[in-house]
Amino acid sequence: MRNTSRLCSAKPIVTVNGRFPGPTLYAREDDTVLVKVVNHVKYNVSIHWHGIRQLRTGWADGPAYITQCPIQPGQNFIYNFTITGQRGTLLWHAHILWLRATVHGGIVILPKLGVPYPFPKPDNEVVVILGEWWKSDTEAVINEALKSGLAPNVSDAHTINGHPGPLSNCASQAEKTYMLRIINAALNEELFFKIAGHKLTVVEVDATYVKPFKIDTIVIAPGQTTNVLVTANQGSGKYMVAASPFMDVPIAVDNITATATLHYSGTLANSPTTFTSTPPQNATSIANNFIDSLRSLNSKKYPAKVPQSVDHSLFFTVGLGINPCPTCKAGNGSRAVAAINNVTFVMPTTAMLQAHFFKIKGVFTTDFPGNPPFTFNYTGTPPASLQTTNGTKAYRLSYNTTVQLVLQDTGIITPENHPVHLHGFNFFAIGKGLGNYNPKKDPKKFNLVDPVERNTIGVPAGGWVAIRFRADNPGVWFMHCHLEVHTTWGLKMAFLVDNGKGPNESLFCHLLKTFQNVSSGAK
Ligand code: C2O
């Protein structure tokens, strides 16, 4: 814990190595990474390496109660994984309670030695971490919300590299090109990001290369990462860097903009900063302008391996609901919940991966529905009952099968953009649309050639996205909305991918090694 002061008041926060945001993890493609996490705080912790594929190293993925038991106060744990076939920017964050508010940092995976970027080499690189700040204790914020049944308070500020105001200066030299590795580590807010007077050339999202394009404003959801090139071609001066919230249908009005300054070296300290306005909170067209421009690089060297056939065709509704809660006074006897296919996920008390591996019964079931239990006009009139069912359910996939998953937003309470994150895989975003998904017409428009490849995708408010991936990674893999409040409310599920013979060896051998590590307290 470290007393940290923002917005003129201090509070103790959980930090990693005393830093907020935490240290950036640097590695190269194909490196094996060992991270020893020692828990010195009073909370249980676990760390997730968001976007790292964890091929056959499911035990190192990190979500508490899904792939591991949390690391208890005074205990430690060694995460041991190899970064296979990935390079780019990702993030690590705590994966328990709301600790990731302050327990997060960047992951920079450089290409293998001697392998260049598929775009002009930047002169310099800067990690830019966007976040949120509450003046009060974040655990208290969510606990209060759970007690009342109502939504938690929105944060008091957005931050850039841990600061709400112009404290974080990004110095730059004229005519040089910088690569910004932008990470959204906020809990509950999608963010616009822009720099006054400078275009951003987008080259990568979620550690996958994209066809480069120039744009003024990008949008980035919690858990997503975006690399952009910026050329300091304005001669001199100071320019505002801004991050502001995006919500297509604003539920809570939140206009706080976090700012930093890009200043050219040699610029006088007292010279004025060129200002940029930020998009309105509901500027969906600005967001779509960015999202719809994303295409996989799909070059010879980095082909887009889009599954062309489908073994499992799934349709999941994502949305909110209302369940009875006699003790929720502020919520008038009911509480807000969230669900996928009307199942509100209940966290188990034994890690699902351990339960699967050691055949422990009664931890979870594999009857997660591949389709919603009832159909209705998802973006129109809500169904008569807003109630969901509780369950700890996984959807089972055979090894190496292909999956097409349509994620449909429901307007049961309100339509809302849900950034859905899948652990253990990258997927291709092959289609997206407004209204109800039409299984007859919409697949005709799917992009099966160069769709963007990601690990976290915004399901448009009042619309749907279709993704495809290959289940080539045995283990138990969490999938959830990366707005932490929705995860807390139950917008989550897991895929169980059976073991199968892969290119390397057997999963279980590796699992066992790692598990022994865990049970012996990993010295
Ligand atoms: Cu970045 Cu399951 O989270």
UniProtKB/TrEMBL annotation:
Major location category of this protein: secreted
Highest taxon of the lineage: Eukaryota
GO cellular component, one term: apoplast
Job of this protein: Lignin degradation and detoxification of lignin-derived products.
Record's protein name: Laccase
Annotated keywords: Apoplast, Copper, Glycoprotein, Lignin degradation, Metal-binding, Oxidoreductase, Repeat, Secreted
Cofactor: Cu cation
GO molecular function: copper ion binding; hydroquinone:oxygen oxidoreductase activity
UniProt cofactor note: Binds 4 Cu cations per monomer.
GO BP term, example: lignin catabolic process
Higher taxonomy: Eukaryota, Viridiplantae, Streptophyta, Embryophyta, Tracheophyta
Compartments, record wording: Secreted, Extracellular space, Apoplast
Enzyme category, top tier: oxidoreductase
One Pfam family, short name: Cu-oxidase
Catalytic activity: 4 hydroquinone + O2 = 4 benzosemiquinone + 2 H2O
EC number in record: 1.10.3.2
Domain Plastocyanin-like: 3-112, 125-266, 368-500
Family assignment from sequence similarity: Belongs to the multicopper oxidase family.
